[in-house]
Input
Amino acid sequence: MTTPLLEIEELHARVGDKEIIKNFNLTINEGEIHAIMGPNGAGKSTLSYVLTGKPGYEVTSGSVRFKGKDLLSLSPEERAREGVFLIMQYPVEIPGVPTSAFLKQALNAQRKHLNLPELDNVSFIKLLREEGKKLGIDSDMLKRFVNVGFSGGEKKRLETLQMAILKPSFAILDEADSGLDIDALKVVADGVNSLRDEHRSMLVITHYQRLLNYIVPDFVHVFADGHIVKSGNKDLALELEEKGYAEFVKER
Amino acid sequence: MNPFFKNNDDFQTPQWAKGLSQEGKAAFLGIGLPTPKTEAWKYTKLRELETDDYEFAPLADKGAMPKEEFPFACAKIDFLNGQWVKTSNLPQGLTIKPLSEAFAQINQIADIQNYPFAALNSAYLEQGVFIEVAANRQIEMPLVLSYHTIPENRNLLENIRNVIILNTGSQLDLVEYYSYTGEVKSRYLVNQVNEITVKENAQLNHYKFQNEAYKANHIALHAVDVETAGTYKSFCLQKGANIARNETKVKLKGLQAKAQVDGAYVMNGWATLDTTTDIEHLFPQTTSSQLIKGVVGGDAKGVFQGKIHIAPNAVQTEGTQLHKALLLSDTAEIDVKPELEIFADDVKCSHGAASGELDEEQLFYMQSRGISREDAKKMLIDAYLEDVFARIENENLRAWFKDLKQNS
Output
């Protein structure tokens, strides 16, 4: 029995005057991992920002339903509290905001939304330490300002830690492997894989097949010219690795 | 017409102040109220002061002074409508006297010929206190000067003069706290002058929180002399008032004298909050450092005028100044005028100014983690001000100020 978690229908979206998402359709059921692969500049990141509600990314038509609700009518924070999470390609540095305070604020905002009591400092720090340990994040790192002075690998580990703490029902990984060496990639992939279960779904956006060796998808889609041009299973990723995207890229 | 001498029939200059008052009146009438053409006041417009009719605060009912709770042990002097009403918890080594017993010390540091509001302050000299710390006394508890106004729909003029002397090797944390009860629309004017002497090896840490009613006006001048190896450190948080200026004039008058003049202002509505500094390095090896940060929203205007003067003989000195402001709306404004006057070689001097807006990428990142946009803004504003608050040495006071910034 499959339950749809995310249903995208005939979605069109633009940034400024430029239409980037064109008639995009995709349904992701609970527990499924989908990968979207495509050439650089095809608008893969645009899709992740449209789904998370970033200002400047305008949906012109189409619908997105998340757990049956109209996702597009929600603010970015409401989408997050409903369970949408984005591991960003370039996590943002926030000087002056300590990482642990940031995470606590985020978790308690979500708990409040779910009518759960807010976590006090003691229980929060305990949770943070436990989850941090699994990802090799020590308490010194958590005292530092959000992403400030973090290496590429540390930033992605922090993204993964946030995911582990917020436990979203749907996670988008936008080029999660960019800037990572193979060891850092394994840590992040292990972290993500440990959160796989029959209800949690993921959308893995990547240019390279490499990441999909570690986070193995149920479905692979090729994204070009604003929509999905081909779908298959994980073998499609290997095929793309071999042949490249040439056949999907329009001649200019 | 000058509003400040219109309704003054009821003002009785005390006997001891007569000479000083005449001097002040003559100086004030000579200089006049600043106009938009007055260089020192070109960004802070005083038009609204001119149309007001001020009356002198009548003697206040001491019982009306609210019991302000400070979250730290302190000695305290209460002022109600500008008048000294109570002193509590004074430690040894600290002497408080009425001005009438210390009038010889008045106008020794403040220059009434060049500061119109100091001249006005002299003209109506009456209220204020004389504070002295005995030599080599380190006063542990902060001394709080708590100024409270109950305007009751009158345009009160509160004219306060304090003389503060730290003798050789002494130390004091001084906190000035301004509050009011009654209509938030109350109009009143606080015109204050502090004359401060920090003697050899002494240190004054001077803190101030200005949170006047939003139609009230507040003008303060801190005239400070720092002698050999003495230190004057200040931090002023401004939040309230319609027009407010916090002006600090420091003279580093001895070898290795130091000054640190910091401030933060957080404002909305139509207010103009002005921070003006003037630091004169008159001796070699003197140092000064200034960090002023503002957060300006609505139609408000932040003003910073900062001057560093280095006299010809003041070699091996160091003066730094930085003003930064965060603009929260399209109609918020800041005006900044840094000035360096350097007449000596072998000095290190720098100034900087920057303004910016909240970063949309940061806001979105926080929102995408479930933090509301409003909370995200608050966190970013706190983060913006973090470095200036971090310069407050006393931990209790640092925490208190952070709280005041947020909640009052």
